[in-house]
Specification:
With 189 residues, the protein is mainly β. The chain contains three helices and eleven strands; from the N terminus they run ββαβββαβββββαβ. The protein starts with 13 loop residues before the first strand and ends in an 8-residue tail after the last strand.
């Protein structure tokens, strides 16, 4: 039996990032690139940010997971700026989505007020073009296939294919053997 151990790397240089801390156990000096407090996993290490970017640009990552503001039907991602809002910089997202690893996007299916985030074409500046392999939302899991576009492979137990199609402004193919997730995912749990 083989044991596979994942190491989560933050673009700010921590390899072996742990889960979010419990309430009251936060350490303001331990943060991820999104300025959220984190914990350190057993066996973690700290590196300079330049080393973290070297790992990305050197194609040493197997998978990249990040959030997004919008996703297009051709697998484009827009996640670094909302026009008209202040931003300190684009961060490492552009490096992450072009480093040759599998790109997995995790986001809510719709934005505030029910605004669509899954669009024919992104309406805000792109982070990467045609780079998404998998999209995970609170309603389902979608795999990107070159000839078919996004294919719904898993659905939340309280969602329907009709709801997903209505809330997505793109054509979505449905997998023949659609799996059902036990509960709806939320980024706030």
């Amino acid at each position: 039996q083989m044991c596979i151990r994942d190491r989560y790397m933050g673009e700010n240089g921590i390899v072996g990032m742990g889960p979010y801390p419990k309430k009251g156990q936060e350490d303001a000096d331990l943060i991820n690139a999104g300025k959220e407090t984190i914990t350190e996993a057993i066996g973690h290490s700290h590196n300079r940010s330049s080393d973290a970017f070297g790992m990305m640009r050197g194609k040493h990552l197997h998978m990249t997971m990040l959030g997004s503001l919008q996703v297009s039907e051709t697998g484009d991602i827009a996640n670094w700026i909302i026009p008209g809002q202040k931003v300190k910089g684009m961060g490492g997202a552009m490096d992450l989505v072009t480093c040759g690893s599998r790109v997995v996007v995790v986001m809510e299916h719709v934005g505030p007020g029910g605004t669509a985030k899954f669009l024919p074409k992104c309406t805000i500046p792109l982070t990467g073009k045609g780079c998404i392999s998998t999209l995970i939302t609170d309603m389902g899991v979608f795999e990107y296939k070159d000839k078919e576009g996004f294919v719904l492979t898993e659905i939340a137990s309280d969602a329907t294919v009709e709801q997903i199609k209505k809330l997505s402004l793109i054509h979505i193919c449905r997998c023949r053997r659609l799996l059902t997730c036990r509960s709806r995912w939320s980024p706030y749990h």
